[in-house]
Design goal:
Length: 330
């Protein structure tokens, strides 16, 4: 069980991450790559990613077990600023921290509680070992994350819109109560089922909520309670496969003044009822237009309570900006 304890100051300092964190997505995607579950959601992504991989997974498999603890230094806070910023922070990890966290990871192994040979040099902080890890992560990211970043970003931004609406409707308490069912808000404690017993006291530092595309099942927090508190939780997914085909023929339907007005109305997120009012169309027409935009990859729709919330994807935002490309990871 994981229990996160809030004070009044902590509630005032709860905040949402502005974007997906590239290193959290990279590391957590490696869990999805090795599992057999969720074939509908991740099966096509696994098949495509495995074709592009070479030897990167050998080092990552030694660092990241299928379940349980993996070193905190793999996901520094700087990863929120892009791949290169995150990798530079990882490269600067002090040797003492490398040694202690790798020793902790080794102690948790079910078989041999010692560091594999390939990690010994890393535990000693040798520059060539760190360079090898950075290279493996960059190469893995290129194969597993980079081609799918717009979809990852769209899913996380849609989840942010749902949480933002909860915050506006009822404050920080409502925001915490709106988190996925794996998390339970019982003021002043946020609980979740967890592989180990963990008590995290925020002590006035607040909490960063980081929705993650590849986080499934249980949320994740740092093992080191001295690090800035962050809760990585599963972003809400639609029921469709995680990554659809690009170049959808539905894009050909995107003509006419009304649909342009509808896309503009969805720019900052809205429910179907709000969309109908903003665009000056009937509820049925608003729902139909949103469905066409969603099929074309321009809109993401998630359920929020008894309503649904529509938000634009990076592709939709680029279209609204006149064709400028969406910001890529890194």
């Amino acid at each position: 069980m994981l229990r996160i304890h809030f004070t009044g100051d902590d509630l005032a300092r709860v905040r949402m991450a502005a974007r997906p964190d590239v290193l959290w997505e990279t590391i957590l995607s490696f869990h999805r790559l090795r599992e057999r579950r969720r074939a509908l959601m991740f099966g096509e992504w696994r098949a495509e990613t495995r074709v592009r991989l070479s030897g990167e997974t050998r080092l990552l498999a030694a660092l990241v077990p299928p379940r349980g603890y993996f070193p905190d230094f793999l996901t520094p806070p700087e990863g929120a600023g892009g791949l290169e910023a995150g990798l530079e922070a990882l490269r600067a990890t002090p040797p003492a921290r490398l040694h202690s966290e790798l020793a902790l990871a080794a102690a948790g192994r079910a078989t041999t509680p010692v560091l594999p040979g390939r990690l010994s040099a890393l535990a000693e902080g040798r520059p060539e070992a760190l360079a090898g890890l950075v290279g493996a992560l960059r190469s893995y990211h290129r194969a597993a994350i980079e081609p799918y970043w717009p979809h990852i970003q769209a899913t996380v931004e849609a989840d942010r819109a749902v949480r933002g609406r909860a915050l506006l409707d009822g404050g920080a308490g409502e925001l915490l109560a709106s988190l996925p069912p794996v998390l339970r808000w019982r003021a002043p404690v946020l609980e979740a089922d967890y592989p180990a017993e963990r008590e995290l006291h925020l002590d006035g530092r607040g909490l960063l909520l980081q929705p993650s595309f590849f986080c499934r099942g249980t949320p994740v927090v740092y093992r080191d309670t001295g690090l800035p508190p962050v809760l990585v939780y599963p972003a809400a997914h639609s029921c469709a496969p995680a990554f659809g085909e690009s170049g959808d023929p539905s894009l050909g339907k995107l003509v006419g003044h009304t649909r342009s007005v509808v896309l503009q109305a969805i720019r900052y997120g809205c429910t179907t009822s709000e969309l109908a009012r903003r665009a000056g169309v009937s509820l049925a027409s608003a729902s139909q237009h949103a469905a066409v935009l969603r099929e074309a990859g321009l809109v993401v729709t998630l359920r929020h309570g008894n309503a649904v919330l529509h938000t634009v994807t990076p592709l939709g935002a680029a279209l609204l900006r006149g064709g400028a490309t969406a910001e890529a990871a890194g």
